[in-house]
């Protein structure tokens, strides 16, 4: 692996900074989290933007900040309300970690986001990228904020052919950013790289002819921009088959269950569901699962929709059945029989929101 010093040896750092920052100053998108430098808002936006597109994040961010405008508001909020505000964004551990970390900031730092790398990076859910983003954007500290986008852009500009899927390559990019970041305006430097990756230097079709840093770009010079970055393919994704049921009683109330406080989609609400063993029928499995797990006698009807949901490491394929509750339901903290209107107050993962929608549409037919 080449050393960062060698890579930037003949690179015109000052001119690159000027071109990048000049372009960002003139062309940056007007995004709600760019209206002030409040570290809390920068933090919330960066967490939301992980694995989620800007267009999707905007309404969530506005709603979240109007509900929890300060660190104190978020720290004092019920987790249930925080998850509800996050509903649909996915990767819910981000919301739980954010609230946990915000409570740390309230309790240990007097409600003010700390300004040092050591302290910020110890907050729960705050990795090296978010640390760099908060410190550079909110506090003007020249720290790298390197994610996949930035690695793509810099691998093209600086002609780096290392595999960006490898952790040690990330370290190389951190060093490269340390070497070329503007100390006068690290915020616009980092945001400029991110914006360039989002608008111009996109993964499949970089718009090199419109690029403000084209004259610095070695991949453009060599005509290899589409071959970079080097990235080994992802590990295979496991497929899991599930059966779920939307169970209603005689009055039309629906049964929902709260997921465990640990693991995937922790603490969100769902319709009862089970992973299918291949040699039993799904209806049989669901019926015995409902009796054994929840003490609920039910009659499982027809499947009315199938839903697939892709996580980073697995895919759910869910067949969803309608069903009728027979007899009484013992409600608890984690099992509730609610009207549909009441159920609207509870946070469901995206796949279960889709079930809800499909069930309601079917009833209207
Ligand atoms: Fe990306 Fe092309 Fe600009 Fe190079 S010239 S940074 S490849 S858009």
TrEMBL record:
<dbReference type="GO" id="GO:0032357">
    <property type="term" value="F:oxidized purine DNA binding"/>
</dbReference>
<dbReference type="GO" id="GO:0006284">
    <property type="term" value="P:base-excision repair"/>
</dbReference>
<keyword id="KW-0238">DNA-binding</keyword>
<comment type="function">
    <text>Adenine glycosylase active on G-A mispairs.</text>
</comment>
<protein>
    <recommendedName>
        <fullName>Adenine DNA glycosylase</fullName>
        <ecNumber>3.2.2.31</ecNumber>
    </recommendedName>
</protein>
<dbReference type="GO" id="GO:0000701">
    <property type="term" value="F:purine-specific mismatch base pair DNA N-glycosylase activity"/>
</dbReference>
<comment type="similarity">
    <text>Belongs to the Nth/MutY family.</text>
</comment>
<dbReference type="InterPro" id="IPR023170">
    <property type="entry name" value="HhH_base_excis_C"/>
</dbReference>
<feature type="domain" description="HhH-GPD">
    <location>
        <begin position="48"/>
        <end position="199"/>
    </location>
</feature>
<dbReference type="InterPro" id="IPR044298">
    <property type="entry name" value="MIG/MutY"/>
</dbReference>
<keyword id="KW-0408">Iron</keyword>
<dbReference type="InterPro" id="IPR005760">
    <property type="entry name" value="A/G_AdeGlyc_MutY"/>
</dbReference>
<keyword id="KW-0479">Metal-binding</keyword>
<dbReference type="GO" id="GO:0034039">
    <property type="term" value="F:8-oxo-7,8-dihydroguanine DNA N-glycosylase activity"/>
</dbReference>
<dbReference type="InterPro" id="IPR003651">
    <property type="entry name" value="Endonuclease3_FeS-loop_motif"/>
</dbReference>
<dbReference type="GO" id="GO:0035485">
    <property type="term" value="F:adenine/guanine mispair binding"/>
</dbReference>
<dbReference type="GO" id="GO:0006298">
    <property type="term" value="P:mismatch repair"/>
</dbReference>
<dbReference type="GO" id="GO:0051539">
    <property type="term" value="F:4 iron, 4 sulfur cluster binding"/>
</dbReference>
<keyword id="KW-0234">DNA repair</keyword>
<dbReference type="Pfam" id="PF10576">
    <property type="entry name" value="EndIII_4Fe-2S"/>
</dbReference>
<keyword id="KW-0227">DNA damage</keyword>
<keyword id="KW-0326">Glycosidase</keyword>
<dbReference type="GO" id="GO:0046872">
    <property type="term" value="F:metal ion binding"/>
</dbReference>
<keyword id="KW-0378">Hydrolase</keyword>
<dbReference type="Pfam" id="PF14815">
    <property type="entry name" value="NUDIX_4"/>
</dbReference>
<dbReference type="InterPro" id="IPR004035">
    <property type="entry name" value="Endouclease-III_FeS-bd_BS"/>
</dbReference>
<dbReference type="InterPro" id="IPR011257">
    <property type="entry name" value="DNA_glycosylase"/>
</dbReference>
<keyword id="KW-0411">Iron-sulfur</keyword>
<dbReference type="InterPro" id="IPR003265">
    <property type="entry name" value="HhH-GPD_domain"/>
</dbReference>
<comment type="function">
    <text>Base excision repair (BER) glycosylase that initiates repair of A:oxoG to C:G by removing the inappropriately paired adenine base from the DNA backbone, generating an abasic site product. 8-oxoguanine (oxoG) is a genotoxic DNA lesion resulting from oxidation of guanine; this residue is misread by replicative DNA polymerases, that insert adenine instead of cytosine opposite the oxidized damaged base. Shows a powerful dicrimination of A versus C, since it does not cleave cytosine in oxoG:C pairs.</text>
</comment>
<keyword id="KW-0004">4Fe-4S</keyword>
<dbReference type="InterPro" id="IPR029119">
    <property type="entry name" value="MutY_C"/>
</dbReference>
<dbReference type="Pfam" id="PF00730">
    <property type="entry name" value="HhH-GPD"/>
</dbReference>
<dbReference type="InterPro" id="IPR015797">
    <property type="entry name" value="NUDIX_hydrolase-like_dom_sf"/>
</dbReference>
């Amino acid at each position: 692996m080449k050393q960062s010093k060698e890579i930037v040896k003949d690179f015109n750092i000052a001119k690159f900074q000027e071109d990048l920052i000049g372009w960002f100053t003139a062309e940056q998108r007007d995004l709600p989290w760019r209206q002030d430098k409040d570290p809390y808002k920068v933090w919330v936006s960066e967490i939301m933007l992980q694995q989620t597109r800007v267009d999707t994040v905007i309404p969530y961010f506005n709603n979240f900040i109007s509900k929890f405008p300060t660190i104190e508001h978020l720290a004092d909020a019920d987790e249930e309300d925080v998850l509800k505000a996050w509903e649909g964004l996915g990767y819910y551990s981000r919301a739980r970690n954010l609230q946990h970390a915000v409570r740390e900031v309230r309790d240990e730092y007097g409600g003010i986001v700390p300004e040092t790398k050591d302290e910020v990076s110890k907050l729960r859910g705050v990795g090296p990228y978010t640390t760099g983003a908060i410190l550079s954007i909110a506090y003007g500290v020249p720290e790298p904020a390197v994610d996949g986008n930035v690695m793509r852009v810099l691998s093209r500009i600086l002609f780096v052919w290392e595999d960006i899927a490898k952790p040690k390559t990330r370290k190389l990019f951190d060093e490269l950013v340390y070497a070329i970041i503007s100390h006068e305006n690290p915020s616009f430097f980092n945001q400029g790289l991110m914006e360039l990756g989002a608008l111009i230097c996109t993964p499949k079709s970089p718009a090199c002819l419109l690029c403000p840093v084209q004259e610095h770009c070695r991949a453009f010079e060599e005509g290899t921009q589409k071959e970079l970055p080097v990235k080994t393919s992802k590990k295979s994704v496991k497929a899991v088959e599930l059966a779920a049921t939307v169970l209603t009683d005689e009055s039309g109330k629906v049964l929902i269950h709260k997921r465990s406080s640990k693991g995937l989609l922790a603490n969100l609400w769902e319709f009862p569901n089970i992973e299918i063993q291949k040699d039993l029928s799904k209806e049989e499995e669901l019926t015995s699962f409902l009796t054994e797990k929840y003490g609920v006698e039910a009659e499982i009807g027809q499947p009315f929709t199938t839903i697939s949901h892709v996580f980073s490491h697995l895919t759910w394929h869910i067949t969803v059945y309608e069903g009728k509750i027979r007899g009484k339901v013992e409600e608890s903290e984690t099992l509730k029989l609610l009207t549909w209107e009441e159920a609207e107050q509870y946070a469901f993962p995206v796949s279960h929101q889709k079930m809800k929608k499909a069930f309601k549409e079917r009833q209207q037919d």
